Amino acid sequence: MLTYQIVISGIVIEVEKKRVKNLRLTVHPPDGTVKISAPLLYKDAAIRAFLESKLHWIKKHRDKYNGKEKPVVPEYVSGEIHSYLGECYVLQLVNHNKPPRIEIANGRIDLYIVEGSTKQQRKKAIDEWYRKQLKEISSPLISKWENIMGVSVNEFGIKNMKTRWGSCNIRAKRIWLNLELARKPFHCLEFIIVHELVHLLERNHNAKFKSYMDEFMPGWRSYKDELNKCPIKKLDWEF
After folding, report:
1. Which of 7, 33, 150, 230 would staple 28 via disulfide (CB 3.0–4.6 Å)?
2. pLDDT confidence of residue 75
3. Residue 220: how many CB atoms within 10 A of its CB?
């Protein structure tokens, strides 16, 4: 593998040559870092020409990150604001000598946990609760859209992903959903599920893929934009 940088119109672009078949251009949050991966034998002049042809696209996507608020790093302490399915709740720690549990009511997320718990223990308890809730909510949603779209999933799971809201292994018919979706509005979760299921009908993000999205969820573009405004995540929407 070979890595270096190319500067196009003042924009520094990270180039990575490796064992791939096609060019892959991406813009990454939170600061709009531009990266391109290319086949090992691809000539630098061809890479530069491709980047110049995509300059408008690069600038458009980098502009999305200008002026965004920096992500707040939670401390998992009482009084802190946490979200669940797009609604804001005040976190309240409650001393508890049994295994951690969470109750949500009256605008609060009550975390019952041992006195003197560490930040990591509190985070783990909340993440496990988010994971459980997201799995329970997603299962009937996936079944609903399987029936509508005429596809089937062998399994799905929840995990932390830095740059994707979801992913689909087409061969294994396996879907992964980002744990962060538990914090987002319900329609955003449903959009990602539909997006990943459409990959079972069309592998690539091409015109056919978008026509499927228009058919099944006409408002998908606004949901995509809503998720892409988040400071630390983006929908992986490539060429």
Report:
1. 33
2. 92
3. 20
Report domain 81-228's class.
alpha beta
- Residue 98 gets which letter from DSSP? S
Query: Could you tell me the residue ranges of all domains in the chain?
Result: 2-63, 81-228
Strand order in the sheet with 87-95: 81-84, 87-95, 108-113, 101-105
The total number of residues written for the chain in this structure: 239
Q: Which two tokens stand for residue 11?
A: 């924009």
What is the three-class DSSP state of 115? coil
The average confidence (pLDDT) of the chain is 89
Tens digit of pLDDT for each residue in 2-42?
888 888 888 889 999 988 888 999 988 777 889 999 998 88
The residues, any chain, with a CB within 8 Å of residue 28's CB and separated by 6 or more, are 34, 35, 163, 234
How far apart, in whole angstroms, are the C-alpha atoms of residue 230 and residue 64? 10
**β-sheet bridge partners, residue 13:** 6, 34
Q: CA-to-CA distance for 180 and 133, rounded, in angstroms?
A: 12
